[in-house]
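Worked Example 4.2. Consider the chain below.
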Amino acid sequence: MTGTQNSSFFSHDGLRFAYTDQGEGPATLLIHGFASNGKVNWFDTGWVDLLLQQGRRVITFDHRGHGQSNKPHNVSAYEPPVMAYDALALLDHLNIQRADVMGYSMGARVTAFMLLLAPERLCSAVIAGIGAGLTEGTGDPAPIVEALEAPSLDDVTTQKGRMFRAFAEQTKSDLKALAACMRSSRKKILPEDLAKIRKPVLIAVGTRDAIAGSAQGLADLIPGAQVLDIVDRDHMRAVGDKQYKEGVVKFWNALPPCV
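Applying the procedure from the previous section yields the following structure tokens:
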């Protein structure tokens, strides 16, 4: 079965969100990263097709400020708990009580907040593209904000800033919305809160990822969490990696079906 990228829409918190919902089987919600969208993060990398072939119901959506969803410019709109409630609202809209959830980078942070705010709605979680950075922080956001607000890519001088600005332009993003999101969406989670998680969790991070922080360092804070090292991949190149896909499929296949 091959996934299609035709979006549907639902409304929540005064905003309109784009989503896709395909296949039958255990509900699987995929949450994309910063400056990306459901298409770039999950369709273009082959994830949707793979999980449909695995007999799963696959749901993607575009975060507020991203893709085809509405793009507020106020910083307060992008607090991670707010974005977690967006994902939960989509599950409500689709009448899905429980789902396996996978988030990448910023989407992984949102997934972690879902685990804390509504653990009964998740059968399991894959936290990918972020490790100990979930509690320690993932670096100074100022260069990224400055890059997004610069007149052009040519005006950006930092390597990290150029990487994010180029990616934002590639995905035809609203730069003002992304700058607001970057200012607000990196809220840390306390280690003592992670210690309360009682769901199966897989942490997947590229071994060359200079942004995410240690996968094992995060796993040590979550009871029973497993680690998947995506060998020889950095933050951007890990997303569609074969090792990542195989590890996640193995993780989910070892669990009871999510019903």
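The two ends are 22 Å apart (CA to CA). The longest strand covers residues 15-22. Compare this with Example 4.1 before moving on.
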